[in-house]
Each structure stands twice: as C-alpha cells, then as structure tokens.
Amino acid sequence: MKSGNTFYVYKYLRSKPTGHGPVGSPYYIGKGKGRRVYSTQDRTSFVPKDKKNIVIVSTGMNEADAFQLEMLLIHLYGRIDNGKGCLRNRTDGGDGPSGWVPSEETREKMSGKARERWTKLTEGERRKLSDARKRGWANLPPEARLELSNTRKARWKNLTEEGRREQRTKQRAGQKKHWAILTQDQKRDFSRNRKEWYARLPEEGKLKQNRQLIVGRLKHLAGLTDEELLEYRNKQSENKKLWHASLTKEQKHVRAEAMRAWHANLTESGKRERNEVISKATREQWANLPEEEKRKVNEAKKKGWASLTEEQNREWRGKVGKAHKERIANLAEDKKRELNKQLHNALLGRWARTPKKTHCPQGHPYDEKNTYTDPRGGQHCKICVKDSKNRSRAKRARH
Length: 399
Prior knowledge:
This protein has helices at residues 63-77, 104-120, 123-139, 142-157, 161-180, 184-200, 203-222, 226-246, 249-264, 268-288, 291-306, 310-328, 333-353, 382-398; strands at 7-13, 26-33, 54-61, 371-373, 379-381.
C-alpha cells in the first residue's frame, strides 16, 4: 500500500427505527483516516456506541478517491435536511467538515453548551485543558501550523466588512468575559508570559507586532463617534492612573529609567517627530476637555507646584531651560524667536496664576513699606536686603 493510500470511507447505521429510516439504515457517511471513524471531535452526527453499527465501506484509498466515493454514497442515500434521504450529513461531501456552514441558531447553541461545560470545570481542570492545548500547538510541525494559519487567513479574507466587524465585536466581548473571571495571579501570569514571548521575538517581529497594534487601534478609533471617542479616552486615562498607582516606587523608577534610555537612543528626527506627536495629541485632548475638567487639572498643577521645594523648583526650571535650548538649537532664527516668545508667555501666565507670597522666607511681611519690586516683577524684602548688606560690610571691614 502506498503511503498516500491511507484514507477510507465509512458509514454509521441506525440501531433503532426512526422516521427517517429503519434499523440498519445508514444515517451518516464520512471519509477519514487513522481513528477518525471513532472520534467525536468536530462531529455533526453522533458516533454509535455499538461498534457493530460502524461499517468501513472501502479502505486503502487516496484522498481524492475517498472524496469521490463519499459524494457518491451521499447522493445515493440522500440527506435529511433537504428532504431527499436518510442521512444527517449537512453537505454533499468532498469538502470535509469545513463545507458545513452552521446557522446562527446552531452557533448560539454550540456556544452556550461550550460555556456551560467551561463553567462546570474546576480551576485545576481549566489549567490542565489550557496546558494540553499549548502542548498540542507546540507539538504541531511547522507545515501544520502554516496550513492552519493560511486557512484562518483565507476564511477572514472571504468575510465582508460587516462580517469582520461582527467577528471583532464577538472576539472583544469574549476576551472581556474571559478576562473578568481571571484572578489577579492569572492576570499577572498572562502579562508575564506575554512579555517573555515579546522579548523572544526578533527585531522584525517586534516591529511587525507594534505596527499591527497601532493599525488596529487606529481602525478602532476611526469607527467611533465623538462621544464614544471621549468616553474611550477617559476610560483609558482612568485605567492608566489606576495601573500607575498600583506600582511600587522601585517599579516607577525602573519604568522612568527605561523610558529615558529608549528616548536617548532615538535619532534627532525621531525625537522631534515624537515630541510633535505628543504635543499635538496633548493639545487635542486639552481642547476636548470640558471646562470643569480643565479647572480640576489646573488646580492639581497648582497644588503640585506649591508642594515643590526651592531646590526642586530650580531643578525643574533648569530642565525646562535645557530641553528648550536643545529643541531650538538647529532651528531658524525666526522659529527660535517664535518658540522663545511662546515659552516666555507660558511662564508669565503660570507666574500670574501663582498665588502671591505674603511673607518672605524669614517671615517678614510683604507690605507696602517692606516690599521692593524689581524691574522684572520680583518681590524682595527690604529688611532681608538691608541685613545682607550689613553682613557684607562687616565682612569687608574685618578683612
């Protein structure tokens, strides 16, 4: 027997009389190889419990001949669903189970049964089933993985745009339900496995994954209305705040260092492009915020600014000045003047919104008699200035 002639055609016989046929009449015709005739996986008909009701019609065939014989027998006996015979087959054969397109009602029933079976499983049984699926995929040869991937791609390509949207909606709903029943440990394990898988990818694979993620997110955002988009952004912001609040101080420090290292490795054009994208997104987000939200943000900024020490204040101003100089270093003169003016106006606006100090660092009041205002608008305590001058004079006199 040739290595390709391993297929056979079989039929299942009735053990009881029904309205579709007497005892011994066939109710299913199939084609397979190995132990397919006894397998209950992906079945449109039940396998007989009594093996005497399983009949191998012909064996030692190649796949094409087995398909031909299957189609001939189905044509001879006829199908129940089209009212021409006694078989439960849903197709005319020659195409395997992929030729059967279940109705929406049948899909709902199958999905409901699958969910019911899953809910009855214990945590250990679910983990065993998941591990078995992973082992099964890992044991597949590369050719089988490629064939399965191509089949899924072809099925997706044949869908209409409406069908694809429906599929995406169902997938997202299923993922949300599945994620909701996971424990915190399972979520952390999933996140860690995802990061390890991403770390093992080559650079081309990482770029491809990033591109797919960005394109998918853009397509999703493009299909949202203005209200849905605002709700989505607010939800994303809240989730990000909750996630950031759950991090420890060491984790926040590691994340900040990683972001700095990543930004340092960018080219100058890449840095400018990223800064422009962030600036544009920030302006759009600020423009879409309601007035109440803007007021809350401004109050939070004031509180944060007031809590800084003098040293932190000087450090922040130094970073802002350094970043501004690096940004305008390679620009034209007119562009430099424009950006300098923007920064100057922003600092003046922030200074104008900052509450005026009523006392100097030494506790002297800033009243009309004790306050000196320099040409740049800064306040100085006359008592402190006088004491400083006296100390300088005394120091010079001793030397």
